[in-house]
Amino acid sequence: MTIVIDELQKAIALAQKLGSEFADARFETQKAKQINVVNGSIRTFSSTERSGVAIRVKFRGAWGFASTTALTSDALKTAVRNAFKLAKTATKYSKEKIKIYETASLKRKSKVKIKIDPENIDTEEKLKFVFSLDEAQKIADKRIVSRTSDYIESLKNFELINSFGSQLEWNEIRISVSAMSIAFESGKREMGFENKRGTVGYELVKETDPHVFGASVAKEAVELLSAVKPPNGLMTVIVDPDIAGVLAHEVMGHASEADEVIKHRSFLSDAVGKKVASNLVTMVDNGTIDGAYGSIPFDSEGTPSSRTTIIEKGVYKGFMHSLETAAALNSTPTGNGRTQDYNRRVWVRMTNTFFEPGNWKLEEMISDTKEGLLALKAVSGQEDPVGGGFQVRALKGYTIKNGEKKNLVRGFSLTGKALEILKTVDSVEKEFQLCSGFCGKGEEDWIHVTSGGPYMRTRITAGGE
Amino acid sequence: MQKLDSLASLAVKKAEKKGAGQVEAFVFNSHIRSVYVEGSSPHLVDDKSENGLGLKLCLGKRVGFASGTLNREKNIEEIVNEAFSIAKTSKKDPYFKSLPNPEKISGEIKDVFCKETGEITAEGVVAKTMEAVSVAEEAKNVKIPLGMLRLANYSLSVTNSLGVHFDHKGTMVYTYFKAKATSGNKAGEGIEKEWSTRIKTIDFERIGKSAAEKALATLKAETFKGELRGISLIAPVEASGLLFIIEFATSSEQVNKGRSPWIDKLETEVANKEFTVEDDGRYPGGMRSALADDEGVKTSRKTIIDKGVLKSYIYDSYNAGIAGVRATGNGFRRGTSSVEGAFTRPAVCAFSNMIIKHGRKTQEEIIPQIDRGVLVETFAAPEVNPVTGGFSCEVRNATLIEKGKLTKHVKHALLTGNMYDLLKNVAYVGNDVKVVDSFVLPTIAFGGATLVG
User: Fold this and answer.
1) What residues does A62 pair with on adjacent strands?
2) How far apart are the C-alpha atoms of B176 and B207, rounded to whole Å?
3) ∠A403-A407-A408 over CA atoms, to 5°?
4) Given pLDDT bands bounded at 50, 70 and 90, which one contains residue B2?
5) B174 and B101 in contact (C-beta within 8 Å)?
6) Strand pairing category for A62-68 and B41-59
7) What are phi and psi of A2, to 5 degrees?
8) How far apart are CA B310 and CA B315, in angstroms?
9) Of A315, A306, A261, A255, which Cα lies nearest the Cα of A283?
10) Which of A43, B110, B278, B346 has a beta carbon 3.0–4.6 Å from B284's, enabling a disulfide?
11) Which of B41, B82, B257 shows the shortest C-beta gap to A146?
12) What is the mean pLDDT of the segment spanning B246-256?
């Protein structure tokens, strides 16, 4: 489904005629295909294609927003009038008037660089991959009682017009493969999981051996059956890139979204220029990394994505911005005004958010630790931009005693104040890894992101049963 | 736009003409209006409409699902072709038995559709939202940095080639407000959330006042140190996050996949006798209440856990086929905090409304019975590993209970335990029933968890 760019131009012209201070119109088509195999048979084989137009209108410092899946000229005009009317209603109650950063007109077309277009690959080949992933888990161990294997391809096309004269067209292509095994023995169930995702083409699948991938997931679940109770209390913890990423994203990242600063909901509001972490800590948000799951050519407002330094050698540097927050804080847009789809609002969101690598090897970090915990794989984490509290659930870990990795421990939580954790970071690995996932803000509005970093050693409170 | 039922029938006919065996069409229309509050002001007001079709098409045991937005008749043709192409290339699913057969669906459910909610003007929506903001900000040093009110009216039509035909329309209201209290360099947040099918049941004045009180209480909270093993009294919104494991454990999907820890546990004790759970698809005012589920299977009221004993799993049609039983009206696509995009997914096995049978005592009457414990009002995120039951949730706002009295406000602690074990240690069930998402539940007191500082 396509819509001619002229229709979007007409919508913007109407918004301007009605008296809008700013307006943009974004047409998007989102296509996705999913193959889900459970215990040797296809549970879901589905395809979806959604198209819609989102129209934003700013009038006297308030936003009106309308979206429609009816893609006729008349429907777009109705949506513009609706959005204008809603902005007029909102402005009557607005105490603070919204400003917007005025950008130069930008006219560009951008195509994502991929090696293999997933739409050119036979379905048979995709099915074969997912079934191989399932089979690898099955044959790995008799104690595997449940297997789930997934392949998802997502193709998005965007056209955006705004009243600054910008006219943009771009696309995003993402591939995801994942597996989850559940092992059972003596009344106890444990799970293992893994995924590979990227803003890439089908080459991601070609480069993945499903037999190795599936077997490792099954092995993880089986090994956890014999894991022991984790230690509790404040201790030295080496967190893996996944868990470091949760700290970067959920606490430091969300609190560095400038809209939270404006709403006085960020514990980092007054942190610019201050020392917030040990010298070993540098953290960035970078939407331009080739192939990373959170990378985007433009955000949903048409601002090119960029690299934003948030912490540099322990000193807090600044925030991520949309057009609106850049104007409010007298800064510049960073390409972080993102939205889930045409049904959702634009607000400041992350892309790829991570700690930069340091100088240590993981083995050196372990051998340098007298007593502690190696925390591996984040199962879940929660944002706390107001309080700066860190909470993450780790799938597993290992105790460390006298410089050696000892017992495998089952799932536990890590918690503490983010700044206290970052100030006690005393070693950072030289390798680096991004972990992909989905970010919600306020429990919804899901977007593709990555978070990550190197292994990092610090002091955190651990707790689990 | 044609009527939804005629679009669904048209899709089924087109698929049959193309050579499909069984076919199911689900047409969904949503109209959503929201107000987002930022910095004490209505920051953005929206109006969104979406029409879409989800089509399940079977060629024997090969099943394909395709979906898309609808803006012209050709879309139906495209979606049928896509579903056909998927089914044709798919592998046989040995577990697939049949789409649901038609059955007589009758009755009436109160409060699933509210005309006033569907017709309220943008002005009215903004005014109600700002009422909560104004009341909250009457409290000294309290602001509402973030809030939202969302109203949706939706219609659905599900038709299948075996003769199932079901139409339904409903309304949905979801709202939350985050209040922030400050004192010197201290800051605390209080959150209030409400779900309803009717705007008039939402008391915006109460929400504003309560969010402010919670925010002010967190200012007094001290970091908890040490370890406390006692009774954990958990407010309904937070308890719903923990009790989600019941949906997981009783879902026939998870049972059939081998993931549920309650496989082979029918007629055995999975909780203690204080605890009874029902699935009631016809609960008046329930967020998922309808005469049939999203596959067109009749809903009903069923006891899932009776005084601690597991009596039944819940079944959508696919998993009922595997188990060789009748579907129980538990195939859903609709969300309960927002409904858009419901057509993009096939129905999955889920509770309609999970009703936790309430007790007789108020929260105030339960507290004096507790010698040592904690009243948890807010977790960072009430998440439990549903496979193992393990949880350790960060407590953001809680009050210690000592010798029957609420004493110190505490924060920065972890409540840890195993939720499946906690169900066997239900100490009290309150009578303060609240609709929370797809749950209807009161405050619940559990033994067996540990608060760790």
Assistant:
1) A59
2) 9
3) 120
4) low
5) no
6) parallel
7) -130, 165
8) 15
9) A315
10) B110
11) B257
12) 97
Tell me, letter by letter, the H, E, C secondary structure of B54-99: EEEEEECCEEEEEEEECCCHHHHHHHHHHHHHHHHHCCCCCCCCCC
Report the pLDDT averaged over residues B270-297.
97
Read off the tokens for B102.
């038609």
A60: nearest CA in chain B? B43
| CA B5, chain centre distance (Å) | 26
Neighbours of A270 (CB within 10 A): 11
CB contact under 8 A, B189 and A47: no
CA distances B193 to A192, A265, A368, B177, B244, Å, are: 34, 18, 48, 7, 17
- Tell whether A123 is within 8 A of chain B (Cβ): yes
Whether pLDDT at A3 is above 70: no
| pLDDT per residue as tens digits for the range A403-427 | 999 999 998 889 889 999 999 999 9
Looking at chain B, the whole-number percentage of residues with pLDDT higher than 90 is: 87
CB contact under 8 A, A38 and B416: no
pTM (predicted TM-score): 0.93
Q: Are residues A442 and A320 part of one domain?
A: yes
Listed range (B177-191, B326-340, B341-355) with the worst mean pLDDT = B177-191
Please indicate, yes or no, whether residues A354 and A423 belong to a single structural domain of this protein.
yes
* CATH superfamily, with its number, for domain B4-220: PmbA/TldD superfamily (3.30.2290.10)
Question: Rounded distance, CA A316 to CA A272, Å?
Answer: 5
> CA–CA distance from B367 to each of A158, B362, B371 (Å)?
56, 9, 8
* Residue intervals in chain B for CATH 3.30.2290.10: 4-220
| Residue A243 backbone dihedrals phi, psi, to 5 degrees | -75, -35
Report the alpha-carbon distance of residue A396 to residue A33 in Å, rounded. Answer: 32
Contacts of A443 in chain B (CB under 8 A): 337
CA separation for the pair A228, A215 (Å, rounded)? 22
**Residue ranges making up the domain that contains A266:** 233-463
pLDDT recorded at residue B109: 96
What is Dmax (Cα atoms) for chain A? 73
Distance (Å) from the alpha carbon of A289 to chain B's nearest alpha carbon: 30
Residue holding tokens 């106890």? A188
If contacts are CB pairs under 8 Å, which of residues 68-97 in chain A contact chain B? Answer: 68-72, 75, 79, 82-83, 85-87, 89-90, 92-96
Q: Which residues pair with B200 in a beta bridge?
A: none
Domain annotation covers residue A72: yes
Model confidence pLDDT, tens digit, residues A240-282: 999 999 999 999 999 999 999 998 889 999 999 999 999 999 9
Sign of the alpha-carbon dihedral angle for B89, B93, B98, B99 = negative
The answer to whether the beta carbons of residues B217 and B400 sit under 8 Å apart is: no
Question: Residue B374 and residue B40: Cα distance in Å, rounded?
Answer: 32
Strand order in B277-280's β-sheet?
B309-310, B301-306, B277-280, B354-356, B439-441, B434-436
CATH code assigned at A63: 3.30.2290.10
